[in-house]
Amino acid sequence: MTAAPGTPAATPRRNLPLLGRPPVERADAARNRRRILAAAAELVATRGVAALSMDEVAQAAGVGVGTVYRRFGDRAGLAYAVIDDRERRFQAAFLSGPPPLGPGADAHARLRAFLHALAERTDEQVDLLLMAELDSPAARFEQSYDVYHRHLVLLIRGAAPEADAVYLADALLAPFAANLVAHQRRTRGMSVERIKAGLDALISGLARSG
């Protein structure tokens, strides 16, 4: 399949889920990795995926371009690494961070906080996530999706024990397809706050039944 304009050429798909600790690295290697990922994320945020360049990332990170190629292989590999880095932080926040996103709040509050945080997380990297879904449409339903689904099932069962939590978890995740979020934001002109308000409406029935 030909990649969409402005996206890196397709390469063998990298896994998106990032639960668990990153590989053990030397201190200097870990420092370079953080600098490279931060520089790549900033470049994508300010100029888009089409502007992602190994040379520019290396220059912004203050490392040699060979270091970037050795660590990430190619531009697509670097893009997936940026997704993975952000995903680790997001999962850590809802699994073990402070409430209401993390443990310690009631199920309704955590459900709302999770959906709001996922809306922000998806919007933040929508171009990179679009690239991942173009690379392999099945990727959306692997790894990170499974983590989100299991988390939502637990929250829905806490908020509404009689509900079909497995189905509703899929239904609540459906609005986060990257192509839909991009369409809402760019074609329909919806703000992230409007998307969050719509998500609140979706879970209001759960709140009443709970």
Automatic annotation (TrEMBL):
<keyword id="KW-0238">DNA-binding</keyword>
<dbReference type="InterPro" id="IPR009057">
    <property type="entry name" value="Homeodomain-like_sf"/>
</dbReference>
<feature type="region of interest" description="Disordered">
    <location>
        <begin position="1"/>
        <end position="24"/>
    </location>
</feature>
<dbReference type="Pfam" id="PF00440">
    <property type="entry name" value="TetR_N"/>
</dbReference>
<feature type="compositionally biased region" description="Low complexity">
    <location>
        <begin position="1"/>
        <end position="22"/>
    </location>
</feature>
<dbReference type="GO" id="GO:0003700">
    <property type="term" value="F:DNA-binding transcription factor activity"/>
</dbReference>
<feature type="DNA-binding region" description="H-T-H motif">
    <location>
        <begin position="53"/>
        <end position="72"/>
    </location>
</feature>
<dbReference type="InterPro" id="IPR050109">
    <property type="entry name" value="HTH-type_TetR-like_transc_reg"/>
</dbReference>
<protein>
    <submittedName>
        <fullName>TetR family transcriptional regulator</fullName>
    </submittedName>
</protein>
<feature type="domain" description="HTH tetR-type">
    <location>
        <begin position="30"/>
        <end position="90"/>
    </location>
</feature>
<dbReference type="GO" id="GO:0000976">
    <property type="term" value="F:transcription cis-regulatory region binding"/>
</dbReference>
<dbReference type="InterPro" id="IPR001647">
    <property type="entry name" value="HTH_TetR"/>
</dbReference>
